[in-house]
């Protein structure tokens, strides 16, 4: 484990024991109609909390209308809140800061989960109406969203604020708003999806209005001592879309509104997406945004500890979020530490750090 990754990091009153974390990665494992965390979520998040500084629980819908699939987590009922409180507890027990990502799927909603075909779920199959900034579908075969009116926007703001209160009551200590990958808040930012001519469209300030209003609403409900993050698609990779210069213009506005960290991702405003990912391909965005004075998290095919350490050493980001590798190799942080850093390994597992000669296992001849 590079020494830079082991360094603690502080946002507001919350200290992260190191600079490695698990990003929000949907498990699509909630029971349809209930949308509460299950035993799968408890096992998944408890395991991945060992050794990292924070675990950001997957995109969690702020309302039934905000779901992307019928198997998403939600946080609009007491039962959902209670189930997520158990998730926050096992993450804390593992030594990581429990964080929760709040989401409204917008025009990406009403679809099946990936292994069920990742297709539009029609109303006669239990699907639901989706909203967006303009009547532009996310992709071929997706529903045409109903343009959000004033009442819709007011409801979205209310639902985000209510969800923030529930997240605090459930024991989470960092909150992230999903404003990337084509979901509702991202779609309002991007001219690819937003062709409105009212106060929420056309100009940069108008397109940024919903996100900034959401941050303000959430910050008013979220405890001041806890940090607030935004996951932002920093570049659409689309002609006429949202660009990195737009992100650099937005970042100080988010900071002034109460955002402490920008989780820098990219793309996803529509399908098909033309850019192919490569190891570390999104680190450039975290590095550029960090120069505006806002703390950042770097993501994007960072698959080993040495690579993660170079990101921190170079000053490109404050946190590295490692997703796909930790899905299949959750013990990687524990295996990467040396004996001098054994404190990162739970006491129950520290015997694994002891070196035993192979000869000790060989019988005498």
Automatic annotation (TrEMBL):
Its cofactor is FMN. The keyword Transport does not apply. Keywords: Flavoprotein, FMN, NADP, Oxidoreductase. Residues 5-336 form the NADH:flavin oxidoreductase/NADH oxidase N-terminal domain. InterPro entries: Aldolase_TIM, OxRdtase_FMN_N, YqjM-like. It comes from the Bacteria. The keyword Cell division does not apply. One of its GO terms (molecular function) is NADP binding. This is Oxidoreductase. It comes from Marinitenerispora sediminis.
């Amino acid at each position: 484990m590079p020494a830079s990754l082991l360094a603690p990091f502080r946002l507001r009153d919350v200290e992260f024991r190191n600079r490695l974390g698990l990003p929000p990665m949907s498990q699509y494992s909630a029971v349809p109609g209930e949308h509460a965390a299950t035993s799968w979520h408890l096992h998944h998040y408890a395991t991945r909390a060992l050794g990292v500084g924070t675990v950001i629980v997957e995109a969690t819908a702020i309302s039934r209308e905000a779901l992307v699939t019928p198997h998403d987590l939600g946080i609009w009922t007491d039962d959902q809140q209670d189930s997520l409180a158990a998730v926050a507890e096992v993450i804390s027990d593992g030594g990581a800061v429990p964080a929760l990502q709040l989401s409204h799927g917008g025009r990406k909603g009403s679809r099946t989960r990936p292994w069920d075909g990742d297709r539009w779920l029609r109303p006669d199959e239990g699907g639901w109406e989706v909203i967006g900034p303009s009547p532009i579908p996310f992709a071929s075969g997706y529903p045409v969203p109903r343009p959000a009116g004033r009442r819709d926007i007011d409801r979205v703001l209310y639902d985000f604020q209510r969800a923030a209160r529930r997240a605090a009551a459930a024991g989470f200590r960092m909150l992230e708003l999903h404003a990337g990958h084509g979901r509702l808040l991202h779609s309002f930012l991007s001219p690819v999806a937003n062709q409105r001519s009212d106060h929420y469209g056309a100009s940069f300030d108008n397109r940024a209005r919903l996100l900034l209003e959401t941050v303000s609403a959430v910050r008013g409900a979220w405890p001041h001592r806890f940090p607030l993050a935004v996951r932002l698609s920093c570049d659409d990779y689309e002609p006429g879309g949202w660009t990195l210069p737009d992100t650099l213009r937005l970042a100080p506005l988010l900071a002034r509104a109460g955002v402490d960290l920008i989780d820098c991702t990219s793309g996803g405003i529509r399908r098909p997406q033309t850019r192919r990912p490569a190891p570390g391909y999104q680190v450039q965005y975290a590095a550029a945004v960090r120069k505006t004075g806002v703390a950042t998290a770097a993501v994007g095919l960072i698959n080993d500890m040495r690579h993660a350490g170079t990101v921190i050493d170079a000053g490109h980001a404050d946190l590295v979020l490692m997703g796909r590798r930790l899905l299949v190799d959750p013990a990687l942080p524990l295996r990467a530490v040396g004996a001098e850093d054994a404190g990162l390994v739970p006491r129950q597992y520290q015997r694994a750090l002891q070196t035993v000669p192979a000869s000790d296992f060989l019988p005498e001849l």
